[in-house]
TrEMBL record, chain A:
Origin species: Hypericibacter terrae
A Gene Ontology BP annotation from the UniProt entry: transmembrane transport
Keywords noted in UniProt: Cell membrane, Membrane, Transmembrane, Transmembrane helix, Transport
The organism's place on the tree of life at top rank: Bacteria
Family of the protein in this entry: Belongs to the binding-protein-dependent transport system permease family. CysTW subfamily.
The protein's name in its UniProt record: Spermidine/putrescine ABC transporter permease
Subcellular compartments: Cell membrane
Annotated ABC transmembrane type-1 domain residues: 72-278
UniProtKB/TrEMBL annotation, chain B:
Keywords: Cell membrane, Membrane, Transmembrane, Transmembrane helix, Transport
GO biological process: transmembrane transport
The organism's place on the tree of life at top rank: Bacteria
SUPFAM superfamilies: MetI-like (SSF161098)
Pfam family, one: BPD_transp_1
Source species: Hypericibacter terrae
Family annotation (Gene3D superfamilies): MetI-like (1.10.3720.10)
PROSITE patterns: ABC_TM1 (PS50928)
Keyword Transmembrane helix: yes
Protein name: ABC transmembrane type-1 domain-containing protein
């Protein structure tokens, strides 16, 4: 920029432009999180009633009751399985899109973005028509005479994971695609000319260079899966609820605000820690490369 | 290409096709079942019928939920586009202390689980002594969509050369004129994309909306969630199909319009 001397008005200008957004985020995000932190020290009396007597009772209950630990562990496990399966399914697809000589590559990418527009609730319940008793799989197997009783696939942990993969796969593929697309093709050619097989070239050059995208995809999948509660509610059984369902029930059904906020803060802290560890090694900006395209 | 390489490539291609089938099969099934004349919402197909679509328009609860979602979505989209564009301008065109923090704060709502955003905002609303209301629902949807609009406009703005704006200033245009005549037309595609995305995010949100909606008020997705609790009726399939057609059609239309605008622009520029 042809540098002009900044007047006081010039210096304030970015803040004028940012003010509405910052105020919105402060009052809708930061302040509520602050109030939540305070609330975790309140005491639950009866549904919808609590007293502000500042004691660590909720935290004590959370850390000593194995019920809560079980939920936390199960949620982390389901989210980790989901993220890994997403990576296994998404990587080859992203690789294919990045390397294809197909002329209409944009169409392949557009098809990945289309599911983002389709209602999440609809995409989730559509799995009932695949896995349910009257679903595609059971009806087909039955008419082929392979089974006499419908298989119980719906309302299981597998169904929950399936629904979450369906929701998260585009995030994974786009993230890996962005980092594969940024690799200099000459590097692979160089490896090949030095005697590497295709597989060796992939393992030694392409794969390591695509790790930031893969990492971003894994993080995003894990965080979104661990925070989900609509998918378990629609596709899971009573025993397949995750941490999000626990929070919802504690607040909306039991009206136990102090415990509900404690659980929310725990979830926030858990996913925050995962994100911070990730950003130390990868840099947080890589996540948003895939999102902002 | 060597034989070994080709075999691997065919495997990768096959896997990719399977992934696309995985993505679209369930959606296709909803579209197919929506015209199934059977009284039950599943297979087998009994015949072709559009009766469930007709039933849908008579369903007052659904129509009401649609109106609610539409208005909240439109308001969210407009507010987010204005605020998001302003913020993106500040972040791309100016250097100021604390920019890193502002950037981190802006992406915050994407990283915080929706359940936590839902609880937090509802609690804050309760803290000031209010019951859940339309304002809360709208504010919440703005919180959810705003980061995406900022990111999209930011990405486009980085690609717009500053010299155009400087040329306008040097010719005597003030900041607002420069923005209106130069910058805005150049970032219009991103602003439209942000507008549509914000609308879609708002129209689609369920995880947080269940916390924020006023008593007795349903948005489209919460209405569907409620309907699912009873049973999978064929009406839900029709509703799903209709929403797929709308939410896929709208952005495609928007994309086509944006492309047309760009083409016209480049045509007049040359």
């Amino acid at each position: 920029m042809a540098v002009s001397v900044l007047t006081a008005g010039e210096r304030r200008r970015p803040w004028y432009l940012l003010a509405p957004t910052l105020l919105a985020l402060i009052f809708l995000l930061l302040v509520p999180i602050g109030i939540m932190l305070v609330y975790t020290f309140y005491t639950f009396k009866t549904a919808g009633v609590e007293t502000a007597d500042f004691n660590p009772g909720n935290w004590h209950e959370f850390f000593t009751d194995p019920y809560y630990r079980g939920f936390l562990w199960k949620t982390a496990r389901v989210a980790a399985i989901t993220a890994l399966l997403c990576a296994l399914m998404g990587y080859p697809a992203a690789y294919c899109i990045a390397m294809t000589r197909f002329r209409h590559k944009w169409l392949l990418l557009l098809l990945l973005i289309v599911p983002f527009w389709i209602s999440f609730t609809i995409r989730t319940f559509s799995w009932i028509h695949i896995l349910g008793e009257q679903g595609v799989i059971n009806v087909t197997l039955k008419s082929l005479g392979l089974i006499s009783e419908p298989l119980q696939m719906l309302y299981t942990e597998g169904a929950v994971i399936m629904g979450m993969i369906h929701f998260l796969l585009p995030y994974m593929i786009l993230n890996v695609y962005v980092s594969l697309d940024g690799i200099d093709r000459n590097l692979v050619s160089a490896a090949r000319s030095l005697g590497c097989t295709n597989w060796q070239a992939f393992r030694e050059v392409t794969l390591p260079l695509s790790l930031p995208g893969l990492g971003a995809g894994l993080l995003l999948s894990f965080v979104l899966a661990a925070g989900s509660y609509v998918t378990p509610q629609i596709l899971g059984g009573r025993s397949d609820s995750l941490f999000g369902n626990l929070i919802f029930d504690t607040i909306m059904r039991e009206l136990n605000w102090p415990m509900g906020t404690t659980l929310s803060v725990v979830l926030l802290a858990l996913l925050g820690v995962v994100s911070v560890i990730y950003s130390r090694y990868m840099g947080l900006s890589t996540i948003f490369k895939g999102l902002s395209r | 290409m060597t034989g070994e390489g080709r075999g691997g490539w065919i495997l990768i291609k096959t896997l990719t096709v399977l992934v696309y089938i995985f993505m679209f099969a369930p959606i296709a099934v909803v579209l197919i079942l929506s015209v199934n004349s059977s009284r039950f919402g599943g297979f087998p197909m009994a015949g072709f019928s559009l009766q469930w679509y007709a039933k849908l328009f008579e369903n007052e609860a659904v129509v009401r939920a649609f109106h609610t979602s539409l208005w909240i979505g439109v308001l969210t989209a407009v507010v987010c586009t204005v605020l998001g564009t302003m913020a993106a301008l500040a972040l791309v065109r100016y250097e100021f202390p604390g920019k890193q923090w502002v950037n981190a704060l802006i992406v915050g709502p994407i990283l915080v689980p929706e359940t936590v955003l839902g609880v937090g905002l509802l609690l804050a609303n309760r803290w000031v002594g209010l019951k859940p209301n339309y304002g809360l629902l709208l504010a919440g949807h703005i919180l959810l969509s705003l980061p995406y609009v900022v990111l999209i406009v930011q990405a486009r703005l980085i690609g717009v050369k500053r010299v155009f704006e400087e040329a306008a200033w040097s010719l005597g245009a003030n900041r607002w004129q420069t923005f209106k005549e130069i910058t805005m037309p150049l970032i219009m595609p991103a602003m439209l994309a942000g507008l549509l995305l914000a609308f879609t995010i708002s129209f689609d949100n369920v995880s947080a909306s269940v916390f924020w909606r006023p008593p007795g008020v349903e948005t489209m997705p919460t209405e569907i969630l409620g309907m699912l609790k009873v049973s999978i009726s064929p009406e839900i399939n029709a509703l799903g199909a209709l929403m797929i057609l709308i939410t896929v059609g709208l952005p495609l239309l928007g994309g086509a319009v944006a492309r047309l605008l760009i083409r016209r622009q480049t045509a007049t520029n040359t």
